[in-house]
Amino acid sequence: MIVTPRWGLLSALGAPLFLVGGFSWGAARQRAAFDSTLDTISALAAVGADERWIMSTALVLLGACHVVTALALSAARLSGRVLLGAGGLSILLVAAYPLPAQGSSMEHFVAAMVAFVCLAVWPLFGMRRSVDAPFVLSVAVCVAASGVLLGLLGWLLVAMFWGGGQVGLAERVVAVAEALWPLVVVLGTVARASGRGRG
């Protein structure tokens, strides 16, 4: 029986908390008008943003949480864990290459896209085909999870490149969904281990 350590549960729980706390607090600290439906999370950590350290720190903590969770989640296949960790490392690069005060940054964009893609597809690569695998790591669940996450990422890309005026909303929805799924998987593996322990 594979048991996810308690520190893995803490890191998985920390990811959505740091993300939502960061972009909520960061938006509240902007003196200029800020619309979370239109404006991106990255804008809160951009050079020249008010209290940019809030979102920058939240991104670092978010990325670190994904890396730690990837190390802890031994119930998942190694390839999935590598992608989850790569997503976390890419988020660290997002923080390291903030948006400039004016214009865009190719380094920032590439790091963000790599993070989004890695965090969307890791369930496909982390799934277990064995009959005794935790339900959250079964083929059906993992295919569905990646399908939903890739669909949300598609919405973000459409909003970014073809308009629609909801880039900020789309980004927040996909980012929160990607931060929550590792927590769901960890909770599922913990519940499975607890059930076996009682049995």
Account of the 3D structure:
This protein is mainly alpha-helical and 199 residues long. The protein has one domain. It is 72% helix and 0% strand. The protein has helices at residues 6-28, 41-44, 52-72, 78-96, 106-126, 139-162, 167-198. Helix 1 (6-28) runs antiparallel to helix 7 (167-198), helix 5 runs antiparallel to helix 6 and helix 6 runs antiparallel to helix 7. The protein is globular. The relative contact order is 0.16.
Structural class: mainly alpha
Low-confidence stretches: none
- Structurally, the number of domains stands at 1
- How much helical structure, as a percent, in the residues? over 70%
**Rg (CA only):** 17 Å
Number of helices: 7
* Main sheet record: none
**How confident is the prediction overall: mean pLDDT?**
93
Identify the overall geometry: globular
Strand content: under 5%
Distance between the termini: 12 Å
**Beta strand count:** 0
Q: Give the helices and strands as they follow along the chain.
A: HHHHHHH
